[in-house]
Creatinine amidohydrolase
Amino acid sequence: MLDLHEATSPEVGQAISKGAVAVLAVGAQEQHGAHLPLSTDTVMAQGVARRIAEAIGGLLLPPIAYGDAWNNEGFPGTLSLSPDTMRAIFMDIGRGLSRSGFRALVIVNGHFGNREPIALAARLLKQETGFPVFHLDYPGMEQAANDICDSKPAAPTFYHADEVETSMMLALAPHLVRMDKAAAEYPTFPATFGMEAISLSTFNKSGVFGDPTSSTAAKGEALIARIVDESVKLVDLFLSDR
Amino acid sequence: MLDLHEATSPEVGQAISKGAVAVLAVGAQEQHGAHLPLSTDTVMAQGVARRIAEAIGGLLLPPIAYGDAWNNEGFPGTLSLSPDTMRAIFMDIGRGLSRSGFRALVIVNGHFGNREPIALAARLLKQETGFPVFHLDYPGMEQAANDICDSKPAAPTFYHADEVETSMMLALAPHLVRMDKAAAEYPTFPATFGMEAISLSTFNKSGVFGDPTSSTAAKGEALIARIVDESVKLVDLFLSDR
Amino acid sequence: MLDLHEATSPEVGQAISKGAVAVLAVGAQEQHGAHLPLSTDTVMAQGVARRIAEAIGGLLLPPIAYGDAWNNEGFPGTLSLSPDTMRAIFMDIGRGLSRSGFRALVIVNGHFGNREPIALAARLLKQETGFPVFHLDYPGMEQAANDICDSKPAAPTFYHADEVETSMMLALAPHLVRMDKAAAEYPTFPATFGMEAISLSTFNKSGVFGDPTSSTAAKGEALIARIVDESVKLVDLFLSDR
Amino acid sequence: MLDLHEATSPEVGQAISKGAVAVLAVGAQEQHGAHLPLSTDTVMAQGVARRIAEAIGGLLLPPIAYGDAWNNEGFPGTLSLSPDTMRAIFMDIGRGLSRSGFRALVIVNGHFGNREPIALAARLLKQETGFPVFHLDYPGMEQAANDICDSKPAAPTFYHADEVETSMMLALAPHLVRMDKAAAEYPTFPATFGMEAISLSTFNKSGVFGDPTSSTAAKGEALIARIVDESVKLVDLFLSDR
Amino acid sequence: MLDLHEATSPEVGQAISKGAVAVLAVGAQEQHGAHLPLSTDTVMAQGVARRIAEAIGGLLLPPIAYGDAWNNEGFPGTLSLSPDTMRAIFMDIGRGLSRSGFRALVIVNGHFGNREPIALAARLLKQETGFPVFHLDYPGMEQAANDICDSKPAAPTFYHADEVETSMMLALAPHLVRMDKAAAEYPTFPATFGMEAISLSTFNKSGVFGDPTSSTAAKGEALIARIVDESVKLVDLFLSDR
Amino acid sequence: MLDLHEATSPEVGQAISKGAVAVLAVGAQEQHGAHLPLSTDTVMAQGVARRIAEAIGGLLLPPIAYGDAWNNEGFPGTLSLSPDTMRAIFMDIGRGLSRSGFRALVIVNGHFGNREPIALAARLLKQETGFPVFHLDYPGMEQAANDICDSKPAAPTFYHADEVETSMMLALAPHLVRMDKAAAEYPTFPATFGMEAISLSTFNKSGVFGDPTSSTAAKGEALIARIVDESVKLVDLFLSDR
């Protein structure tokens, strides 16, 4: 594994000549209640991406610390990139990796709003350059959360500042978690949620969806291990015919 | 000072209500020879930005870790965003800060190739929203380098993996510097440099421009102090009539 | 209800003065096996949209007969619009409706690949003009399919040329269905499906996902009734506070 | 002839292997007075396109039911796509046909405002992919109108809701024509018409240009026959050297 | 009249305060046979624009010397701007004039291929800023050519390097005309001309359409006078209600 | 040397077959005080470009008479193109030259604000087509101004309506210079100049930067000769390996 934040150019040159796979975490600058930092999605995605890179001998790129978090802009500190800007970032990085001779790019996405621009860039890069891009959204997380966590999510597969995310943050960056400020909120979703452009702050007070109070680093560690295992299996499959 | 990587949404909300100024470092993922990491420009810009934020009580945004480094793409590990993508990032962030009620944005740029998209975004944001953007390119660096460093730059105001950058990295992130690999190179610039699109790797072997061998953390500390002092003076001027 | 394919300008003028809601079906030109026409998604969306328009007294726009069906381009007859073109269509129509004095737009989407450009246009129109856009993806379909159909879908909520779609087509446009050519196929999805850009034709032979052989018009009628009921309930909620 | 609204994917596959030519009608959603439907241009273009497809054994695509009708937006029910959106639609469809192995695309345009984006897309597709696009604007219509109709157009080659269009609609879709509401209007064109952006509603009251009162289905049939004959002759010429 | 090539800023400031109308000629860099210069369309448009500016007391902008001449690119020396670039130029200039306080913009177009981007920019500027743009394509030219010239055009209203253009050039810039090289060519237009993207050089040998041999400066003078008279009448009408 | 304003298509055809190099001057429509015309930058760039073309046997294109002069828009008569429009112009012309068989393009830039779009287009054209573009910004001007002129510039390398520009205009177009209106102004630059978007008119009254009063044609001639000599040397170097 090579962390491209720390590595030098000659080290990357050597890795490329052996068939380097780049791993890129994509997060967000987004409110996560009073107990988690604005960088939560980035920290988590980078944490998972680092372990995947370690497992596959990949080259870990600096993470993208901003995402499309438009529906959380009602809360201070959230800062979004538009979907077009997000796509442009992935296109530029993908083209650069392709020109440089990388074998493939694995994107580890930590924020729901980034899914579409990532998937679209993957498709367009394949069409334009043939460069293979694989994108992961914490595979296996639903099952793992079910198995490991005590509280229920506020909505199916909706994990935001809850036990899942808080536990993962306790495992990855405990100094950034204020457990004394963790408090549950189970907001009532509007019946039309997902069918019109609704800001989350119109029905969510604290920025928390679910109950983070029983979060522990051990649970976080277990969640990460499950996600990483599942991810590595899928990446291996993806790379096997390339 | 609030580091928005670590801060929570309510903390930012409080800061905004008191007139928050955002500080954003912009770096690059770019080769810096065999002794400096690919993240050199990001680490340096973030280091300077952090001290400026401390001095002015600003809110430090997560840095932009990619820049437009097209002319270094001949060296492995360099990854560029296009000028249009860079501009889009600054436009999105500027619009978001403006909507959120921030007072101003100060951009600390650590990479030459980012100057134009930053300046253009500053102009367009002013026209579109009136939001004030201030952008700094290490003010006072030339004089400081002259005063503090022993070696000459490879070309006037051209500091790349040389004594200036290496000293600053020794001050900011010594664990990322391989001084044993530091070696001087004074490449001969083509007479037509700057008048056509020339890849640096066509006339530069090691990725180093100048002589990093006499770099020290103390020199780096002195350089940073001078740049920060000068920057804070200018930021204060900029903010004084806003 | 006014069908804007048939209506005249003065008729629309009258309707607008009373607070007209536009209803727009979005389909696709996409392969649907040997027994369903390429227009299947358009016919279904328009059929559902028509009943919604009837129920709410809406103005039914001509349907968009092309969608983003890139992953079915391996089958002849599929023709896609890019996500950017799709978005542009919705933006133009939304702006026009807003300028014309319409009260709102309800989009009835019949094709998975259109979801993102529709949702994005809804968001952008709200930001740009405040014009309210509501978008439906056959609400209640999963439960209804479960209740009404005999066969299982090839994957959860994946209905393509199967018993669900074939039954709905038998209810809406029986002359376009070749039941004698209907045959089941339960393709094995690649484990990495949804994580890379995969053409469906690489693992699906016939263009059918599931088993259309037991389809009937009565089932189709029941499915449509359930979807329309659920849709109308949601549209009423959406309109109630506008 | 294959109608791609009704055809299945395997049927198109067979046709392509024999050298399929696609035929695409482009209309508009535009006011046509009190006696003709908003879809008039689409119905007419599709009617003509269908006969051309029949004559040449072409594959008839679903029509584009929206056009650039900006200068009729002063009348309710008109809904425009911008020229850029129109062009994007033709580019996407042309690229798709080219990738799919079609031999050529024939566009039958039924609305003046669409001419430029169609011609521009044809040019760009030729440059980009070499794919041949032929575009028809009712060739021979002026002579035919002169020969067949009793009334004069409101301006040379300006046929809008007049005897020409009403007769053609009576031939193609009589149920959509309200002859009892047909009334003549010969508006006075501003002297600067065509030299500045003028909305038609500023000098036209009823939406009619000319005199539709003597329209008959027989005249419409004769007009269509002449246009189709002329079109087929030109298409044959176009295809002969491809 | 003020020629903005020669005028100073204070002079323009004075003119604006009295309600300045800008006049902009748009030409092309396009082949015009062996006897006329590549700048023919620019010279002619600027000549006509200058007289219009004189007549109305307008401010004459520097001409746009490049146009969209794609179908003449088969001949050396032709250089085109794309329609999008042309539009962007007019949008930028129109916005600038509007911000500066100009009363209106009159565009004098000398090249057929520029018509659409000019008309589109005029429409968009009106929508975006309300700034009035008037665009002229040599009004009255057909009648004048008929009255004054001896030869026939190669096609109706198609004047290219023929008696009309050559005479006008003899009147405006005789030193740029090589009458000894003037020779007639009446090319046979393909039957499908205007219906597909056809380069003129595929059926035109010399670049001349028509017969320039009987051209004289006196005829050119007469043509220009007629066009200018007609133009000024129309501009006055346009300006009268502004 | 061939001036493409005057030349005919066959003449260019001949030149291309021998390896033609195009020379393009880029100026601005920008205020230059009360004594110099708005076209100053265009006249100067074209004057220098003409001599370079003469020296290298190049083909002189019509100049681009508009530039990006946004920071002078506070003065009447300034009209800007956006950086994107500027870039598009250079891309279109570069592509056209490349398709036409030209050997290279030399751009002579006469306005600071155009530098970036020119350099960017040069880079993108090289990547897209390999077509070589060389861009000059009056090389050697600083040294020449120092040697030849009596007054100091208002800021280092900042020459605007001062002795340098006025002398060059006296040499190139004396009829456009009003020496009786020439007056010195040495404005005080804001300390934050270049770090935020500042209109020059906020700190500059007359539009003059420096002292034009001692300007002479002889000095202008000398300046031009030095710049042209230096330019030709560089162009020869650039062309030598192509």
